[in-house]
C-alpha cells in the first residue's frame, strides 16, 4: 500500500498470513495451515522473537474501537441516500489513529416538518455523535441530540468561515446559508478546543 501505511504498526486480522513455517515457528495467537503458512488467530500486532524464531500476535483488546455510549468526532467522508459515513478522528476527546468510520442516519428530525427543510450534510463537515450500536461490526452513531450534529463546516459556496444562525449555517464572507443539523456549541472555536485537547496537529 502507500508509504505512509508502511510506517504504521500493521494490524493483523484473524486468518491473515503472519509468516511461513520456514521463517518462524508459530507462537501465541497463531495457527498453522496445511500449506505451511502461519496465520493470525486474533486481532493484533506481530511480535517476533528472533532468537527463538517464534512469531506471535499481541492481541489488541480493542482500545482503538469505540464502545456504546462513546462520543465520536470525525468528518463526513461519504453521503448515501439517508446515511452519512464519518471518518472518526476522536473517541471521547482522545485522538484515534485506527481510521475506522461510523455511520449515522441523516433523518434527525428537528428542524422542519417540511421535507425541503431537512438538514443538509456535506463531505468534510465535522460531526459529533454518540455510538448507539456496534451491530455487524459497524459503528452506528446518533447525531439527533442537541449536542450532536455538525460541529463545524466551511462555506459550501466560497469556503469561508461560518456561524450558526438558528438551524442554519451562515457564511460570514459571502452570506450564503443552508439548513443544517448543528450542535448547540457549533463553531470554529469548539473545533479548535477539540484539536487542542486531543493533543495533535
Ligand atoms: Zn461563503
Structure explained in plain terms:
- With about 200 residues, the protein is mainly β.
- The chain has 2 domains: about 5-60, RNA polymerase II/Efflux pump adaptor protein, barrel-sandwich hybrid domain (OB fold (Dihydrolipoamide Acetyltransferase, E2P), Beta Barrel); about 70-200, Beta Barrel (OB fold (Dihydrolipoamide Acetyltransferase, E2P)).
- The chain has 2 helices and 17 strands.
- It is elongated.
- Zinc ion binds next to loops.
Sheet/helix structural class: mainly beta
- Overall shape: it is elongated
Oligomer: single chain
If you consult CATH, what is the topology of the largest domain? OB fold (Dihydrolipoamide Acetyltransferase, E2P)
Query: How would you spell out the order of helices and strands?
Result: HEEEEEEEEEEEEEEEEEH
Task: Specify Rg, calculated over alpha carbons.
Answer: 22 Å
Number of helices: 2
Please write the CATH class name of the largest domain: Mainly Beta
In the sheet with the most strands, the strands line up as 8-9-11-13-12
Number of domains as seen in the coordinates: 2
Q: Mind describing the biggest β-sheet?
A: 5 strands, mixed, barrel
- Ions and ligands: zinc ion
| Helix proportion range | under 10%
Beta-strand content estimate: 35-45%
Average pLDDT metric: 86
Low-confidence stretches: 1-7
Shape-level CATH architecture of the largest domain: Beta Barrel
State the total count of DSSP E strands.
17
Throw out a few tags for this protein:
mainly beta, OB fold (Dihydrolipoamide Acetyltransferase, E2P), five-stranded mixed β-barrel, four-stranded mixed sheet, 17 strands, 8% helix, elongated, disordered N terminus
Amino acid at each position: 500500500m502507500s508509504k505512509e501505511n508502511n510506517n504504521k504498526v500493521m494490524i493483523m486480522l484473524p486468518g491473515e498470513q503472519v509468516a511461513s513455517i520456514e521463517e518462524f515457528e508459530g507462537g501465541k495467537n497463531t495457527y498453522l495451515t496445511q500449506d505451511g503458512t502461519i496465520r493470525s488467530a486474533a486481532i493484533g500486532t506481530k511480535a517476533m522473537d528472533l532468537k527463538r524464531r517464534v512469531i506471535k500476535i499481541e492481541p489488541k483488546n480493542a482500545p482503538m474501537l469505540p464502545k456504546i455510549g462513546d462520543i465520536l468526532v470525525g468528518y463526513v467522508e461519504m453521503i448515501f441516500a439517508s446515511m452519512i459515513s464519518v471518518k472518526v478522528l476522536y473517541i471521547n476527546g482522545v485522538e484515534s489513529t485506527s481510521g475506522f468510520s461510523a455511520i449515522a442516519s441523516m433523518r434527525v428530525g428537528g428542524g422542519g416538518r417540511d421535507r425541503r427543510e431537512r438538514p443538509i450534510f456535506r463531505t468534510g463537515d465535522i460531526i459529533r455523535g454518540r455510538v448507539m450500536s456496534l451491530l455487524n461490526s459497524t459503528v452506528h452513531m446518533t447525531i439527533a441530540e442537541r449536542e450532536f450534529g455538525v460541529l463545524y463546516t466551511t462555506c459550501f459556496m466560497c469556503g469561508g468561515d461560518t456561524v450558526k444562525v438558528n438551524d442554519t449555517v451562515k457564511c460570514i464572507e459571502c452570506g450564503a446559508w443552508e439548513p443544517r443539523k448543528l450542535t448547540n456549541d457549533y463553531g470554529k472555536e469548539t473545533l479548535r478546543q477539540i484539536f487542542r485537547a486531543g493533543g495533535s496537529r
